[in-house]
Design goal:
homodimer; about 450 residues; alpha/beta; Amidase signature (AS) enzymes; Amidase signature enzyme (chains A, B); Amidase_dom (chains A, B); AS_sf (chains A, B)
């Protein structure tokens, strides 16, 4: 039914458009209807102009078959810290209210060229740099946060308002909303996708992130962004005989009952399907990784927010003022040591991760907390952002209140495609047998 | 004489404006006259609108004394890979001809807030990423290159068309033009100044660079950009008893007679003034630093130029097409190893550098070569860009043809202010006794 098109994945929609079964306008209309019906409850959008979306859809329909790109007509929600030349980019900052330079981020240039329909801009915490939630509500429970800072993209994809979304991650801003909204979230290897035109918080940490409701859709995006491993991923990966590890990491005391139970279940499911799951730990010398992350974050933030501090320090979060004023008195020596210590850890952790088909680790402590004022705890994501490894949140589990909980799969740097291939098989099992029921 | 104002340094002009001796309009007029007289010979500008410059100058003159910033009325030339909201930003790329989004780079926001007069946009090689020279000629000999990729900023400051300039460095793009144009060039510690709104080539290498004709002017800019060391720099540094080292590096075979003689003279001068100069070398395990730099450059360029490749691959340099297509077949394994090996080298090299007041190393092989088609050799700069250390080019020496040659002083990361303080004293000696005579 044409009115249900919004429920399809990008891959499914793409097939229908290619086959001439539906037009991009049909599809866009279905999405816009879904958004109109759900926007009051979810409020995922910082900017969305339905008339302009239809105008773009019409233009896409006018492109001859032979000139169409691989994402032709596929809609994507864009986090409002990524420049779009035809829509405002406001960073959830009063300094940038109605800010609309005629500039596309590098990622948007690539997506447009591939034929994507840029649907609108989604909410974010201020500059994707604080944990103060925007107006957005979790689609699965309006009394709960969708997470952050990629709040709107996570909620929009979770609520079937868009099949694909762009987020960013400096701490846990892509993976956490992925878990809270019950969707697949992919933080690729650092700098595997250009960050041109994406607001800077910390250069060595910031990573563009991708949302979808299927791994095939993430693979479509990985193709578009030319993310390739040295070795093509396995096409026949099966759980029978596969080798996983469970890594609780040094922040395990932050775990809640929801994620703990989800990890137990995940482990049982993998074993039941014939895989081995070994419990591993990181060398103790890496116990300070979260502290090193915090040090690098604050000291790179000191550089990043000096412009806003200079022009309007009363209009930026105290958290960011603190970075610029270096309120934690982080010395340059400490900054450089943290930066170097993380660098030393990367190849060693890669080597450990490389021994397995993938390593399981929590995405979050538990299901999305009540309230939309705070976006939740990023503790389990931080170290992977610093280590530059690809991470994929796989949905499928439920918390005490029936809210979604995901598990992270991690692989060594630039093993993104292998991780996607493994995640596809794992995701099928977790989604089917993990126990979470999607109700939206 | 008001007509000679263009010859002053930023610090000198600032004092005159503060004292009410001259207006910003007087100063801007003098610079515009200089530019009008010299532009045909030098061609440093990608965009400059004299009427708009005067309009800005008038607006600055209207600001009450109490509200004026530390750079009030000081003109600065901006490399055309850095966004300016009121001028085009064209990257010397046909893809971006007349490109003019209403966006200021973070550095420009800070400069404007400090009261700087954004004079115009200066020429660059394509995306600051190739060695194919733009139209610009060396002010000291129009038959020679001003270097690159910061060609226009280097030439403009060298030719007294602007007291200050912004450049960038991914290989040797700030330091090389500094040497070729006979000016001070400062590549600060990586990420000490925000790169927001500066075109990306390689995230882990790209650094904003600063040009001036005096160290005091660079200190003024360092203040503006809030670059601080852990320990305030010495205020009474003298060469008597100071400790320097001479580091020829693994690329010493690239040296020419000009820079070799300049280094000999520099060493003699420092010794004659009571300093010690010890010859040191890097551990052999770092001999591959230039190769690691090349590997990281190409593989990060693969990510950076995918957007331009996607939309107009026939309009970008074959060099950049080669990055995107990975024509050198650099594996992800090699990419990650190069990235990590550079990371491992940083603290060790810092420790070595930290034993001296500063370390001398060549800026370039020799004086600016004949022809403007190629921008010269960056061999001596690459490793410092990769190592993230601050580098300052100090002018004062001359090649066989009377063209300027500078020497680099290097210090550990985030010892930028100490390096400036040392360079001030060293620069006075090199400029006075080094033998180069400025003729423009």
């Amino acid at each position: 039914m044409s009115s249900d098109l919004y429920r399809l994945t990008a891959t499914e929609v793409s097939q229908k458009i290619k086959a001439g079964e539906i037009s991009v306008q049909d599809y866009a209309t279905s999405l816009l209807n879904r958004i109109a019906a759900r926007d009051e409850a979810v409020q995922a959008w910082a900017y969305l102009d339905p008339a302009y979306v239809l105008e773009q859809a019409k233009a896409l329909d006018a492109i001859p078959q032979a000139e169409r790109g691989p994402l032709h007509g596929i809609a994507i929600a864009v986090k409002d810290v990524i420049f779009t030349k035809d829509m405002p980019t406001q960073f959830n900052s009063p300094i940038y209210a109605n800010n609309a330079p005629a500039l596309d981020a590098g990622s948007i240039t690539i997506l447009r060229k591939a034929g994507a329909l840029i649907l609108g801009k989604t909410t974010t915490t201020e500059f994707a740099a604080t944990t103060v939630g925007p107006k957005t509500r979790n689609p699965h429970d309006p009394n709960r946060t969708p997470g952050g800072s990629s709040s709107g993209s996570g909620a929009a994809v979770g609520d079937f308002q868009a099949p694909l979304g762009l987020g960013t991650q400096t701490g846990g801003s892509t993976i956490r909303p992925g878990s809270y909204n019950g969707i697949y979230a992919f933080k690729p290897t650092w700098n595997a996708i250009t960050r041109e035109g994406q607001k800077i918080y910390a250069l060595i940490l910031d990573t563009l992130g991708l949302y979808a409701r299927s791994i095939s859709d993430l693979e479509l995006l990985a193709d578009t962004f030319a993310i390739f491993d040295d070795v093509p991923p396995p096409t026949n990966f099966t759980l029978q005989g596969a080798k996983f590890a469970l890594l609780k990491t040094m922040v395990w005391p932050s775990i809640g009952p929801g994620a703990s139970a989800a990890l137990d279940k995940a482990t049982s499911l993998l074993r039941a399907h014939g895989a081995s799951v070994e419990e591993i730990s990181l060398p103790e010398k890496f116990n300070d990784l979260p502290t090193w992350h915090a040090t690098v974050l604050a000291s790179e933030g000191r550089t990043a927010f000096l412009p806003e501090y200079a022009i309007a320090k009363d209009q930026i979060s105290p958290w960011l003022v603190g970075h610029v004023e270096n309120c934690d008195k982080i010395s340059r020596k400490a900054q450089v040591e943290a930066f170097d210590n993380i660098s030393f850890a990367r190849p060693e952790v890669d080597e450990l991760l490389g021994k397995y088909d993938a390593v399981l680790t929590p995405s979050v402590p538990d299901e999305a907390p009540l309230g939309i004022e705070k976006t939740g705890n990023a503790a389990f994501c931080l170290i992977w952002t610093a280590l530059h490894t690809p991470v994929i949140n796989i949905p499928g589990f439920a918390g005490e209140n029936g809210m979604p909980i995901g598990i992270s799969l991690v692989a060594p740097r630039y093993h993104d495609r292998r991780l996607l291939a493994v995640s596809k098989v794992v995701g099928e099992v977790f989604e089917k047998e993990g126990g979470w029921e999607r109700k939206v």
